[in-house]
Amino acid sequence: MNKNGYRHLIFDIDDTLLDFGSAFFLARENVATFLGVECSEEYKALDEKTGWKAWNEMRLDSTEEEDVQKHYHEYYYEYLRRHFKYLLEELGMKEDEEALVDCYLEAIASSASLKEAGTLDVIRKLSENYVIELASNGIVKTQMKRIKIFEPFVRKTYISEDIGAIKPTEDFFKYILRDLQCNPGECLMIGDSIMNDVIGAKKAGMATCYYNPRNKEVRSDCCDYVIDCIQKLLQIL
User: Which of 3, 34, 116, 225 could form a disulfide with 209 if both were Cys (CB 3.0 to 4.6 A apart)?
Assistant: First the structure.
């Protein structure tokens, strides 16, 4: 046990440790290549429009809603199918939507760009004094491939599709606590989402650190720590 009382540091993956934007851009380019079209600004605009249309239809930002919590992964796959259905309609093309979903997910799985250049070194240093875990709302077959760079320093990874519950539900965080066989006060959750990472973990009794590189306005009492770069964890811990 460290002097601050934490034994476990639990990190969100996307846009905390890894840059999901880089993965998404690669996936978009790979889908365009699969379709045999140029990934032009016009194509990107169509892709963005159809993607957001499908995302909003499936309400995937509404992780506080019980229905979304219960069916999140089902809705996520449906979002991908609808996205590519709408994109193909805009392009006037006929292709197998499932093949595009596979192309997209394979590209996501192959991308492991760090959110910050020094992220891996920070995780390595913290692993000398803390037990490191990862926790993600995501798909097992993509996330497990993306996190291989962290494997030497991480004891366990918790992925919502595998657990059968998503952040910010109590079930997700209680699952982690049961698996770790520890008290909530021994855990510090670090992530970039106030709703999914901070509120969810706080309700489970964990300490929380909001990773806020864009310096968004945040209530001072919503979490235990706020950092704008991953290196600042070394000052806190």
Answer: 225
